[in-house]
Design a protein that fits this description.
By secondary structure, this protein is of the alpha/beta class. It has seven helices and ten strands. The protein has helices at 34-45, 66-78, 96-103, 185-204, 217-226, 228-236, 269-281; strands at residues 15-17, 53-55, 84-87, 109-113, 134-139, 157-161, 165-168, 179-182, 242-244, 251-253. The strands form four sheets. It has a four-stranded parallel beta sheet with strand order 3-4-5-6. It has a two-stranded parallel ribbon with strand order 1-2. α1 (34-45) runs parallel beside α4 (185-204), α2 packs parallel to α3 and α5 crosses α6 (228-236). Helices cover 30% and strands 14% of the residues. The protein has a single domain, classed as Rossmann fold, CATH 3.40.50.
């Protein structure tokens, strides 16, 4: 996803095939449905964001090649200038080329699905397992971490809604509906990424608008732009945006906490939200 202050669309096409075999490219058509579903979640939560799609699997399979995913990451960061990347996929083993691609672009915040292994002993998949990526687990509507999530815990993890969530689905001769409910960390990951897009949008634009008069806010915004991944993770894991799950080990993202009923009457909503963000990211001032 990529957006600017004016909300202008980019000139680049909003999708590309990165599956490495152009004889098998299916253009913008989604034969499987997984990509359409994930994109639909982003559009529901962050409708003003520019969303770009990189197809990384051949038709009729969900088995991605890590080298192809690395190619897509380079394309997203260099051509699309993406602020956020959402990856509803994972690999059992680390891959050097993919990890290099992820670490090469520290200004792009990457969210990756933790996996749906449950407690069968298998760990969080790569790249959600590495520190430079925000690992996303799934939770139900009460904020309880889903039973199908790995029980491994990482300092860079969060959870978001990921059970029975309605989103778009492609229609063909065998599928008569345009919507479907799904569950999994593939669901919670784009939801978390879309929430992060809203947070970044507010920090970069809303916090500096004429509606907001908060001292040192420009310093905070500049700091977030220098270290977006670390600052976003701090925000999403804070009491402003999340609650602990039943184990206390996973922070479940519920962004409306920022606007709880302790808003001061003399301040507008934007100013109060900006002040809370400033106090969290810059508690001692500059």
């Amino acid at each position: 996803m990529s957006f600017d202050e004016e909300g202008n669309l980019h000139e680049e096409p909003p999708w590309t095939d990165c599956n490495g075999n152009f004889d098998e490219c299916s253009g913008y058509r989604d034969i499987d449905g997984h990509g359409t579903y994930c994109a639909g979640l982003v559009f529901q939560i962050a409708p003003e964001a520019d969303v770009f799609i990189a197809k990384v699997t051949p038709p009729n399979t969900r088995e991605a090649d890590p080298d192809v995913v690395a190619c897509a990451i380079h394309y997203a960061t260099r051509a699309w200038k993406a602020d956020i990347i959402s990856m509803s996929l994972g690999f059992d083993c680390p891959d050097v080329a993919l990890e290099v691609a992820l670490n090469e672009h520290p200004k792009t915040v990457v969210f990756a699905a933790a996996a749906n292994h449950g407690t069968n002993g298998r760990s969080i998949t790569f790249p959600a397992s590495i520190p430079s990526v925000i690992c996303v687990k799934s939770a139900n509507g009460d904020g309880t971490t889903s039973s199908f999530c790995p029980n491994t815990h990482l300092p860079n993890q969060i959870s978001a809604l990921g059970e029975e969530v309605l989103s778009m689905w492609p229609v063909d001769e065998t599928r008569g509906t345009m919507q479907r409910r799904c569950r999994g960390t593939s669901v919670s990951t784009p939801i978390a990424a879309a929430i992060a897009a809203l947070v970044l949008d507010f920090v970069y634009t809303g916090c500096l608008s004429n509606k907001v008069m908060v001292p040192n806010m420009q310093n905070v915004v500049d700091d977030v732009k220098r270290f977006p991944r670390d600052r976003l993770l701090r925000l999403l894991q804070s009491d402003l945006f999340s609650n602990p799950d039943q184990s206390g080990a996973v922070r479940n993202v519920v962004p409306w906490l920022l606007l709880r009923d302790d808003l001061r009457v003399r301040e507008g909503v934007h100013t109060q939200a900006a002040r809370k963000i400033r106090d969290l990211l810059n508690p001692h001032g500059y």
